[in-house]
Task: inverse folding
């Protein structure tokens, strides 16, 4: 029986990946293994030679995403306008590592920091094009929103208790009355459409750019089939002014979807803020700024 690594992330290193590759994919055993420069928390990723990566979940809660991505990314890829991670191999537990893992093709590009994007309005429209293409993909047999993706794509009501607890804790730190109005509007705007594909974590770190343009979207661990509102939160997380309006126009979603999107982002920012308001002024200020923009947006469009 394989044993669980003593510390989710700490139990994974290049030596482990090398052993897994050697025993399960011997044709690649001669390739060098090295950490990527920018890594995530849910998974550890290692370069395998120049054209591949090995991706290993750090805890049991992230394991369902492995099978989901391995099954669905090859099906979705032909219908999408930019690259998504190609699945080249499906690893199994071994060498003291207890979870399924995968080998993928390496995608060139850098994460989408603002300074790497030449035209933010054009980028916003390109991203909208990707999301709309994803929404048009066949949903037959797709994974419905639920525990496997922390209820992205479901109603924001799943986080109602947590949101109200955060509002109570932050009373006096921000305008909780206005924030509560945004949350109530999100709950009232129930999703009544047909379920569609969504990514679930559209953020700059999961978007790759080259020459200032969107070239790939990665990390579909929170993807699923349901309400696409959660994919709109980047409107406030990355865009502003004209680029935000370009994204809003290109997406063409109804008012209720935008109301739920504001709710999703408000929940996340309130949760972050309640955890850092007294310990990390920079992080707190960032979340307060985003919350303020969401509140203003609700009063303008809601």
Result:
């Amino acid at each position: 029986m394989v044993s669980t690594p003593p510390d989710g992330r700490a139990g994974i290193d290049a030596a482990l990946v090398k052993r897994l590759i050697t025993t399960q994919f011997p044709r690649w055993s001669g390739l060098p293994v090295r950490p990527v420069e920018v890594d995530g928390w849910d998974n550890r990723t290692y370069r395998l030679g120049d054209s591949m990566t090995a991706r290993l979940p750090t805890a049991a809660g992230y394991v369902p995403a492995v099978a989901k991505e391995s099954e669905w990314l090859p099906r979705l890829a032909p219908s999408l306008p930019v690259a998504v991670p190609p699945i080249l191999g499906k690893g199994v537990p071994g060498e003291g590592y207890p979870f399924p893992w995968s080998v993928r093709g390496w995608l060139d590009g850098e994460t989408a920091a603002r300074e790497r994007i030449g035209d933010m309005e054009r980028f916003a429209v390109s991203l909208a094009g990707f999301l709309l293409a994803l929404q048009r993909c066949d949903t037959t047999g797709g994974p419905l929103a639920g525990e496997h993706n922390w209820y992205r794509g479901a109603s924001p009501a799943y986080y109602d208790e947590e949101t109200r607890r955060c509002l109570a804790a932050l009373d006096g730190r921000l305008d909780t009355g206005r924030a509560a109005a945004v949350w109530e509007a999100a709950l009232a705007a129930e999703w009544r459409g047909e379920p569609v594909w969504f990514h679930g974590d559209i953020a700059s770190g999961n978007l790759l750019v080259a020459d200032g343009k969107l070239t790939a979207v990665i990390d579909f661990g929170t993807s699923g089939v349901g309400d696409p509102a959660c994919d709109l939160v980047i409107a406030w997380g990355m865009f502003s002014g004209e680029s935000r309006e370009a994204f809003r126009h290109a997406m063409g979603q109804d008012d209720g979807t935008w109301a739920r999107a504001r709710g999703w982002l408000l929940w996340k920012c309130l949760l972050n803020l309640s955890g850092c308001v007294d310990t990390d002024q920079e992080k707190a200020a960032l979340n307060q700024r985003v919350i303020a923009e969401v509140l203003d947006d609700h009063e303008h469009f809601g």
The chain is about 40% helix and 15% strand.
